[in-house]
Specification:
Layout lengths: L4 H18 L2 H12 L3 H29 L1 H21 L3 H30 L4 H30 L8 H9 L8 H18 L17 H8 L2 H32 L3 H26 L5 H21 L2 H15 L2 H10 L6 H10 L3 H16 L1 H6 L2 H13 L9 H5 L1
Helix pairs in contact: 1-5, 1-6, 1-8, 2-3, 2-10, 2-11, 3-4, 3-5, 3-15, 3-16, 4-5, 4-8, 6-11, 10-11, 10-13, 10-14, 10-15, 10-16, 10-18, 11-13, 12-13, 12-14, 12-18
Protein backbone atom coordinates (compact mmCIF):
# COMPACT_ATOMS: atom_id res chain seq x y z
CA UNK A 1 0.00 0.00 0.00
CA UNK A 2 1.23 3.51 -0.85
CA UNK A 3 2.28 5.64 2.10
CA UNK A 4 -0.18 8.36 3.08
CA UNK A 5 1.96 11.13 4.55
CA UNK A 6 -1.06 13.32 5.28
CA UNK A 7 -2.56 10.64 7.54
CA UNK A 8 0.84 10.16 9.20
CA UNK A 9 1.00 13.91 9.87
CA UNK A 10 -2.56 13.83 11.23
CA UNK A 11 -1.65 11.00 13.62
CA UNK A 12 1.46 12.85 14.78
CA UNK A 13 -0.74 15.91 15.39
CA UNK A 14 -3.13 13.69 17.35
CA UNK A 15 -0.27 12.50 19.56
CA UNK A 16 0.66 16.15 20.12
CA UNK A 17 -2.89 17.09 21.16
CA UNK A 18 -3.22 14.02 23.43
CA UNK A 19 -0.07 15.01 25.27
CA UNK A 20 -1.04 18.68 25.46
CA UNK A 21 -4.35 17.80 27.12
CA UNK A 22 -2.96 15.00 29.31
CA UNK A 23 0.06 16.56 30.97
CA UNK A 24 -1.20 20.06 31.80
CA UNK A 25 -2.75 19.09 35.16
CA UNK A 26 0.56 19.03 37.06
CA UNK A 27 1.45 22.72 36.56
CA UNK A 28 -2.09 23.66 37.62
CA UNK A 29 -2.02 21.85 41.00
CA UNK A 30 -1.11 24.87 43.19
CA UNK A 31 -3.77 26.99 41.46
CA UNK A 32 -6.36 24.21 41.78
CA UNK A 33 -5.66 23.78 45.52
CA UNK A 34 -5.99 27.52 46.08
CA UNK A 35 -9.07 27.96 43.85
CA UNK A 36 -11.10 25.11 45.32
CA UNK A 37 -9.50 24.93 48.81
CA UNK A 38 -8.51 21.27 48.46
CA UNK A 39 -6.38 18.91 50.50
CA UNK A 40 -3.60 16.96 48.75
CA UNK A 41 -5.78 13.83 48.80
CA UNK A 42 -8.69 15.62 47.15
CA UNK A 43 -6.51 17.23 44.49
CA UNK A 44 -5.11 13.75 43.79
CA UNK A 45 -8.63 12.68 42.80
CA UNK A 46 -8.23 14.79 39.64
CA UNK A 47 -5.54 12.64 37.98
CA UNK A 48 -7.43 9.64 39.39
CA UNK A 49 -10.52 10.67 37.41
CA UNK A 50 -8.43 11.16 34.27
CA UNK A 51 -6.27 8.02 34.35
CA UNK A 52 -8.92 5.66 35.67
CA UNK A 53 -10.66 6.30 32.35
CA UNK A 54 -7.74 4.49 30.69
CA UNK A 55 -8.25 1.50 32.97
CA UNK A 56 -11.97 1.44 32.23
CA UNK A 57 -11.95 2.26 28.51
CA UNK A 58 -8.82 0.77 26.92
CA UNK A 59 -10.19 -2.74 26.21
CA UNK A 60 -13.76 -1.59 25.28
CA UNK A 61 -12.20 1.03 22.99
CA UNK A 62 -10.32 -1.68 21.12
CA UNK A 63 -13.55 -3.59 20.57
CA UNK A 64 -15.35 -0.43 19.37
CA UNK A 65 -12.53 0.49 16.99
CA UNK A 66 -12.70 -2.95 15.39
CA UNK A 67 -16.48 -2.63 14.97
CA UNK A 68 -16.86 0.99 13.81
CA UNK A 69 -13.43 1.95 12.45
CA UNK A 70 -10.75 4.44 13.39
CA UNK A 71 -12.27 7.58 11.86
CA UNK A 72 -15.62 7.39 13.66
CA UNK A 73 -14.02 6.57 17.00
CA UNK A 74 -11.46 9.39 16.70
CA UNK A 75 -14.28 11.87 15.99
CA UNK A 76 -16.24 10.56 18.99
CA UNK A 77 -13.11 10.75 21.16
CA UNK A 78 -12.43 14.40 20.36
CA UNK A 79 -16.13 15.28 20.75
CA UNK A 80 -16.13 13.75 24.23
CA UNK A 81 -12.92 15.65 25.03
CA UNK A 82 -14.39 18.94 23.79
CA UNK A 83 -17.60 18.48 25.78
CA UNK A 84 -15.59 17.63 28.89
CA UNK A 85 -13.38 20.72 28.56
CA UNK A 86 -16.40 22.96 27.87
CA UNK A 87 -18.14 21.56 30.97
CA UNK A 88 -15.36 22.74 33.27
CA UNK A 89 -14.78 26.02 31.45
CA UNK A 90 -18.50 26.88 31.68
CA UNK A 91 -19.13 25.66 35.23
CA UNK A 92 -15.85 25.82 37.20
CA UNK A 93 -15.93 23.63 40.31
CA UNK A 94 -14.32 20.57 41.83
CA UNK A 95 -17.18 18.19 40.94
CA UNK A 96 -17.36 19.40 37.33
CA UNK A 97 -13.55 19.13 37.13
CA UNK A 98 -13.74 15.45 38.08
CA UNK A 99 -16.40 14.80 35.44
CA UNK A 100 -14.51 16.85 32.88
CA UNK A 101 -11.25 14.97 33.40
CA UNK A 102 -12.97 11.58 33.22
CA UNK A 103 -14.51 12.57 29.88
CA UNK A 104 -11.21 13.92 28.53
CA UNK A 105 -9.42 10.76 29.76
CA UNK A 106 -12.04 8.60 28.02
CA UNK A 107 -11.42 10.44 24.77
CA UNK A 108 -7.66 10.10 25.09
CA UNK A 109 -7.92 6.38 25.87
CA UNK A 110 -9.97 5.80 22.70
CA UNK A 111 -7.44 7.76 20.64
CA UNK A 112 -4.46 5.82 22.03
CA UNK A 113 -6.09 2.56 20.96
CA UNK A 114 -7.18 3.80 17.52
CA UNK A 115 -4.11 5.54 16.14
CA UNK A 116 -1.33 2.95 16.40
CA UNK A 117 -2.71 0.43 13.85
CA UNK A 118 -3.66 3.40 11.65
CA UNK A 119 -0.08 4.67 11.81
CA UNK A 120 1.23 1.25 10.70
CA UNK A 121 -1.05 1.21 7.66
CA UNK A 122 -0.69 4.86 6.65
CA UNK A 123 3.07 5.03 7.05
CA UNK A 124 3.89 1.53 5.88
CA UNK A 125 5.07 -1.36 8.05
CA UNK A 126 8.73 -0.77 7.16
CA UNK A 127 8.48 2.78 8.56
CA UNK A 128 6.33 1.93 11.58
CA UNK A 129 9.14 2.00 14.15
CA UNK A 130 10.49 5.34 12.84
CA UNK A 131 7.04 6.91 12.68
CA UNK A 132 6.21 5.67 16.20
CA UNK A 133 9.35 7.29 17.60
CA UNK A 134 8.61 10.52 15.70
CA UNK A 135 5.09 10.52 17.18
CA UNK A 136 6.54 10.05 20.67
CA UNK A 137 8.93 12.96 20.12
CA UNK A 138 5.98 15.21 19.23
CA UNK A 139 4.17 13.81 22.27
CA UNK A 140 7.12 14.96 24.37
CA UNK A 141 7.24 18.33 22.61
CA UNK A 142 3.61 19.02 23.53
CA UNK A 143 4.29 18.11 27.17
CA UNK A 144 7.23 20.53 27.10
CA UNK A 145 5.13 23.35 25.61
CA UNK A 146 1.91 23.00 27.63
CA UNK A 147 3.33 24.37 30.94
CA UNK A 148 4.83 27.29 28.99
CA UNK A 149 1.44 28.03 27.40
CA UNK A 150 -0.14 27.93 30.87
CA UNK A 151 2.49 30.34 32.21
CA UNK A 152 2.05 32.68 29.21
CA UNK A 153 -1.75 32.73 29.51
CA UNK A 154 -2.03 33.33 33.27
CA UNK A 155 0.78 35.89 33.40
CA UNK A 156 -0.69 37.89 30.51
CA UNK A 157 -4.23 37.65 31.89
CA UNK A 158 -2.89 39.29 35.05
CA UNK A 159 -1.53 42.17 32.94
CA UNK A 160 -3.87 45.12 33.41
CA UNK A 161 -2.06 47.41 30.96
CA UNK A 162 -4.45 46.49 28.15
CA UNK A 163 -1.61 45.33 25.88
CA UNK A 164 -2.13 41.58 26.29
CA UNK A 165 -3.82 41.16 22.90
CA UNK A 166 -7.24 40.17 21.53
CA UNK A 167 -6.89 36.46 22.30
CA UNK A 168 -5.96 37.02 25.96
CA UNK A 169 -8.69 39.64 26.31
CA UNK A 170 -11.24 37.17 24.95
CA UNK A 171 -10.13 34.49 27.41
CA UNK A 172 -10.28 37.02 30.25
CA UNK A 173 -13.90 37.77 29.39
CA UNK A 174 -14.83 34.08 29.58
CA UNK A 175 -13.49 33.17 33.03
CA UNK A 176 -13.67 34.65 36.56
CA UNK A 177 -10.67 36.89 37.38
CA UNK A 178 -9.49 34.58 40.17
CA UNK A 179 -9.69 31.47 37.96
CA UNK A 180 -7.47 32.48 35.04
CA UNK A 181 -6.13 28.91 34.69
CA UNK A 182 -9.61 27.72 33.69
CA UNK A 183 -9.07 29.56 30.39
CA UNK A 184 -6.82 26.68 29.28
CA UNK A 185 -9.89 24.47 29.09
CA UNK A 186 -11.53 26.83 26.62
CA UNK A 187 -8.40 26.36 24.52
CA UNK A 188 -8.69 22.57 24.90
CA UNK A 189 -12.36 22.64 23.88
CA UNK A 190 -11.58 24.64 20.73
CA UNK A 191 -8.57 22.49 19.81
CA UNK A 192 -10.63 19.30 20.23
CA UNK A 193 -13.41 20.70 18.01
CA UNK A 194 -10.87 21.65 15.35
CA UNK A 195 -9.59 18.06 15.41
CA UNK A 196 -13.16 16.83 14.91
CA UNK A 197 -13.48 19.02 11.79
CA UNK A 198 -10.05 17.99 10.42
CA UNK A 199 -10.70 14.28 10.95
CA UNK A 200 -14.23 14.56 9.56
CA UNK A 201 -12.89 16.06 6.30
CA UNK A 202 -10.17 13.41 5.96
CA UNK A 203 -10.45 10.21 3.94
CA UNK A 204 -8.99 7.39 6.01
CA UNK A 205 -7.32 4.28 4.55
CA UNK A 206 -8.87 0.92 5.31
CA UNK A 207 -7.12 -0.66 8.27
CA UNK A 208 -6.94 -4.43 8.32
CA UNK A 209 -5.77 -5.48 11.74
CA UNK A 210 -3.21 -8.24 11.99
CA UNK A 211 -4.15 -11.17 14.19
CA UNK A 212 -1.74 -9.88 16.82
CA UNK A 213 -3.38 -6.43 16.79
CA UNK A 214 -6.93 -7.66 17.33
CA UNK A 215 -8.35 -7.20 20.80
CA UNK A 216 -9.77 -10.70 21.09
CA UNK A 217 -12.63 -12.12 23.09
CA UNK A 218 -13.17 -11.91 26.84
CA UNK A 219 -11.96 -15.50 27.14
CA UNK A 220 -8.62 -14.49 25.63
CA UNK A 221 -8.15 -11.74 28.22
CA UNK A 222 -9.04 -14.09 31.07
CA UNK A 223 -6.59 -16.66 29.72
CA UNK A 224 -3.82 -14.04 29.62
CA UNK A 225 -4.63 -12.73 33.09
CA UNK A 226 -4.00 -16.21 34.49
CA UNK A 227 -0.37 -15.93 33.39
CA UNK A 228 1.90 -14.44 36.08
CA UNK A 229 4.13 -12.85 33.42
CA UNK A 230 1.19 -10.81 32.07
CA UNK A 231 0.38 -9.45 35.52
CA UNK A 232 4.04 -8.67 36.21
CA UNK A 233 4.31 -6.55 33.06
CA UNK A 234 0.94 -4.93 33.75
CA UNK A 235 2.43 -3.83 37.09
CA UNK A 236 5.45 -2.54 35.15
CA UNK A 237 3.28 -0.20 33.07
CA UNK A 238 1.28 0.68 36.20
CA UNK A 239 4.51 1.58 38.03
CA UNK A 240 5.94 3.58 35.14
CA UNK A 241 2.89 5.81 34.62
CA UNK A 242 2.52 6.22 38.38
CA UNK A 243 6.13 7.40 38.61
CA UNK A 244 6.01 9.67 35.57
CA UNK A 245 2.82 11.36 36.67
CA UNK A 246 3.85 11.28 40.34
CA UNK A 247 6.79 13.55 39.60
CA UNK A 248 5.23 15.79 36.94
CA UNK A 249 1.98 16.17 38.94
CA UNK A 250 3.45 17.05 42.32
CA UNK A 251 6.70 18.87 41.53
CA UNK A 252 5.17 22.36 41.22
CA UNK A 253 3.36 22.02 44.55
CA UNK A 254 6.54 20.59 46.14
CA UNK A 255 8.66 23.50 44.90
CA UNK A 256 6.13 26.02 46.18
CA UNK A 257 5.78 24.29 49.58
CA UNK A 258 9.46 23.66 50.34
CA UNK A 259 11.29 26.30 48.28
CA UNK A 260 8.70 29.08 47.87
CA UNK A 261 8.91 28.80 44.06
CA UNK A 262 6.23 30.64 42.05
CA UNK A 263 4.15 27.85 40.41
CA UNK A 264 3.04 30.05 37.51
CA UNK A 265 6.59 30.79 36.34
CA UNK A 266 9.51 28.77 37.79
CA UNK A 267 7.25 25.88 38.79
CA UNK A 268 5.82 25.68 35.27
CA UNK A 269 9.34 25.94 33.82
CA UNK A 270 10.50 23.02 35.98
CA UNK A 271 7.70 20.81 34.66
CA UNK A 272 8.41 21.95 31.12
CA UNK A 273 12.07 20.98 31.65
CA UNK A 274 10.93 17.57 32.95
CA UNK A 275 9.11 16.83 29.70
CA UNK A 276 11.76 18.47 27.54
CA UNK A 277 14.51 16.30 29.05
CA UNK A 278 12.27 13.27 28.69
CA UNK A 279 12.11 13.99 24.97
CA UNK A 280 15.91 14.38 24.82
CA UNK A 281 16.32 11.15 26.77
CA UNK A 282 14.13 9.34 24.25
CA UNK A 283 16.57 10.30 21.48
CA UNK A 284 19.56 9.10 23.55
CA UNK A 285 17.74 5.90 24.41
CA UNK A 286 17.24 5.12 20.71
CA UNK A 287 21.01 5.27 20.21
CA UNK A 288 21.82 3.23 23.32
CA UNK A 289 19.40 0.47 22.36
CA UNK A 290 21.40 -0.06 19.18
CA UNK A 291 24.44 -0.96 21.28
CA UNK A 292 23.23 -2.22 24.66
CA UNK A 293 20.70 -4.86 25.78
CA UNK A 294 17.45 -3.09 26.70
CA UNK A 295 17.41 -4.70 30.16
CA UNK A 296 20.79 -3.18 31.00
CA UNK A 297 19.60 0.23 29.77
CA UNK A 298 16.50 -0.11 31.97
CA UNK A 299 18.62 -0.97 35.02
CA UNK A 300 21.02 1.94 34.50
CA UNK A 301 18.34 4.52 33.81
CA UNK A 302 16.19 3.32 36.74
CA UNK A 303 19.06 3.73 39.21
CA UNK A 304 19.87 7.17 37.77
CA UNK A 305 16.19 8.20 38.07
CA UNK A 306 16.14 7.17 41.73
CA UNK A 307 19.29 9.21 42.43
CA UNK A 308 17.82 12.22 40.63
CA UNK A 309 14.57 11.94 42.60
CA UNK A 310 16.56 11.86 45.86
CA UNK A 311 18.39 15.05 44.85
CA UNK A 312 15.06 16.69 44.03
CA UNK A 313 13.43 15.73 47.33
CA UNK A 314 16.32 16.39 49.72
CA UNK A 315 18.62 18.84 47.94
CA UNK A 316 18.71 22.61 47.87
CA UNK A 317 16.40 24.62 45.64
CA UNK A 318 19.08 24.60 42.91
CA UNK A 319 19.43 20.82 43.18
CA UNK A 320 15.65 20.37 43.13
CA UNK A 321 15.32 22.44 39.95
CA UNK A 322 17.85 20.08 38.32
CA UNK A 323 16.97 16.80 40.04
CA UNK A 324 13.26 16.67 39.22
CA UNK A 325 13.68 17.38 35.48
CA UNK A 326 16.48 14.78 35.34
CA UNK A 327 14.00 12.16 36.56
CA UNK A 328 12.19 12.83 33.29
CA UNK A 329 15.40 12.34 31.33
CA UNK A 330 16.09 8.95 32.88
CA UNK A 331 12.45 7.84 32.78
CA UNK A 332 12.35 8.46 29.03
CA UNK A 333 13.24 4.91 27.97
CA UNK A 334 11.14 3.06 30.54
CA UNK A 335 7.79 2.96 28.73
CA UNK A 336 9.12 1.68 25.41
CA UNK A 337 11.43 -0.89 27.02
CA UNK A 338 8.75 -2.26 29.35
CA UNK A 339 6.23 -2.55 26.50
CA UNK A 340 8.74 -4.20 24.14
CA UNK A 341 9.96 -6.65 26.81
CA UNK A 342 6.34 -7.50 27.61
CA UNK A 343 5.22 -8.12 24.03
CA UNK A 344 8.41 -10.06 23.29
CA UNK A 345 7.72 -12.32 26.28
CA UNK A 346 4.52 -13.87 24.92
CA UNK A 347 4.14 -15.79 21.68
CA UNK A 348 0.50 -14.97 20.85
CA UNK A 349 -2.50 -12.72 21.59
CA UNK A 350 -0.42 -9.55 21.39
CA UNK A 351 -3.47 -7.38 20.67
CA UNK A 352 -5.28 -8.53 23.81
CA UNK A 353 -2.05 -8.27 25.81
CA UNK A 354 -1.57 -4.71 24.56
CA UNK A 355 -5.04 -3.81 25.81
CA UNK A 356 -4.19 -5.19 29.25
CA UNK A 357 -0.89 -3.27 29.28
CA UNK A 358 -2.54 0.02 28.28
CA UNK A 359 -5.00 -0.50 31.15
CA UNK A 360 -1.95 -0.21 33.39
CA UNK A 361 -1.99 3.53 32.65
CA UNK A 362 -4.44 3.57 35.58
CA UNK A 363 -1.26 3.65 37.70
CA UNK A 364 -1.35 7.38 37.07
CA UNK A 365 -4.59 7.41 39.08
CA UNK A 366 -3.76 5.17 42.04
CA UNK A 367 -0.22 6.38 42.77
CA UNK A 368 -1.33 10.02 42.96
CA UNK A 369 -3.96 9.16 45.56
CA UNK A 370 -1.35 7.40 47.70
CA UNK A 371 1.12 10.29 47.41
CA UNK A 372 -1.62 12.81 48.25
CA UNK A 373 -2.88 10.83 51.25
CA UNK A 374 0.61 10.44 52.70
CA UNK A 375 1.28 14.11 51.95
CA UNK A 376 -1.79 15.21 53.91
CA UNK A 377 -0.76 13.15 56.92
CA UNK A 378 3.04 13.57 57.18
CA UNK A 379 4.06 15.97 54.41
CA UNK A 380 4.40 16.00 50.62
CA UNK A 381 8.13 15.15 50.76
CA UNK A 382 7.29 11.86 52.49
CA UNK A 383 4.40 11.34 50.10
CA UNK A 384 6.73 11.62 47.11
CA UNK A 385 9.13 9.16 48.77
CA UNK A 386 6.52 6.54 47.87
CA UNK A 387 7.65 6.95 44.23
CA UNK A 388 10.79 4.97 45.06
CA UNK A 389 8.61 1.84 45.33
CA UNK A 390 7.35 1.85 41.69
CA UNK A 391 10.85 2.89 40.56
CA UNK A 392 12.33 -0.08 42.42
CA UNK A 393 9.82 -2.37 40.69
CA UNK A 394 10.80 -0.98 37.28
CA UNK A 395 14.44 -1.60 38.20
CA UNK A 396 13.60 -5.21 39.06
CA UNK A 397 12.20 -5.82 35.56
CA UNK A 398 15.73 -5.48 34.18
CA UNK A 399 16.77 -8.45 36.32
CA UNK A 400 13.86 -10.90 36.05
CA UNK A 401 12.60 -10.34 32.50
CA UNK A 402 13.37 -13.12 30.03
CA UNK A 403 11.98 -12.09 26.62
CA UNK A 404 11.69 -14.64 23.83
CA UNK A 405 13.37 -12.08 21.55
CA UNK A 406 16.00 -9.56 22.69
CA UNK A 407 16.45 -6.14 21.09
CA UNK A 408 18.86 -6.25 18.16
CA UNK A 409 22.14 -4.45 18.80
CA UNK A 410 24.98 -3.66 16.42
CA UNK A 411 27.10 -6.52 17.79
CA UNK A 412 24.25 -9.05 17.46
CA UNK A 413 23.56 -7.90 13.90
CA UNK A 414 27.24 -8.42 13.04
CA UNK A 415 27.08 -11.94 14.49
Amino acid sequence: MKRNLYIVALIVLTFFVISFLTNIIGPLVPDIIESFDLSLTLVALLPFAFFIAYGVMSIPAGILVEKYGEKKLMIVAFLISSIGATLLASFPGFATYLMSLFMIGTGMAILQVAINPLLRVAGGEANFAFNSVMAQLFFGLASFLSPLVYSYVVVNMADTSGEAGIFIDLLSSLVPPDLSWISLYWIFAIVSLLMVVIIGLTNFPAVELKDDEKVGALETHLELLKQPMVLLYFLGVFSYVGTEQGVSYWVSEFLQTYHNIDPQTQGANAISAFWGLMTAGTALGLVLLKFVDSRKVLIGFSIAAMISLAFGLFGSVEMALIGFPMVGFFASVMWSIIISLALNSVSSHHGSFSGILVSGIAGGAIVQLIVGWIGDNIGLRFGMLFLFIPLAYILSIGFWSKPLINNQTVSKKAD
